[in-house]
Write a structure and sequence with these properties.
Length: about 110
C-alpha cells in the first residue's frame, strides 16, 4: 500500500522560507514520477513541480520559478520542496503525489503579515 506523508508546512511572514518534505513507502519510488501539487482555499489543485526518477525537474509552475526547488532522494524515498521568498499567493495545502495517482494528506503553508 502506497503511503505518502508530507511535513514541513507552517505559518511564515512574506519573504519567508520553508522546506516541505514527503516520505514515501510501499511503492517503487526510484522508478516513479513524483510531484508536488497545491490547493488554495476555494481553488482547484494545481501542479507545482514534477521530478522524474533521474532527478530532473521536468515541470515547475511559472509563478514559483526562481523561488521553489524540488529535490528527490531515491535512496531514502523522499521528495522535498524548498520554498523561498514566499508571498500570500503561495498560501495553500501542499500535496505530494506519486504518478498523480497516490496522494498524501497535505501540509498547510500560510503566508501572512
Amino acid at each position: 500500500q502506497v503511503q505518502l506523508v508530507e511535513s514541513g508546512g507552517g505559518s511564515v511572514h512574506p519573504g519567508g522560507s520553508l522546506r516541505l518534505s514527503c516520505a514515501a513507502s510501499g511503492c517503487p519510488f526510484s522508478r516513479d514520477v513524483m510531484s508536488w501539487f497545491r490547493r488554495a482555499q476555494g481553488r482547484e489543485r494545481v501542479l507545482v513541480a514534477n521530478v522524474i526518477p533521474s532527478y530532473t525537474t521536468t515541470y515547475l509552475l511559472a509563478s514559483v520559478k526562481g523561488r521553489f526547488t524540488a529535490f528527490r532522494d531515491n535512496d531514502n524515498n523522499t521528495l522535498d520542496l524548498q520554498v523561498t521568498n514566499l508571498g500570500p499567493e503561495d498560501t495553500a495545502v501542499y500535496y505530494c503525489s506519486r504518478a498523480s495517482t497516490s496522494w498524501g494528506q497535505g501540509t498547510q503553508v500560510t503566508v501572512s503579515s
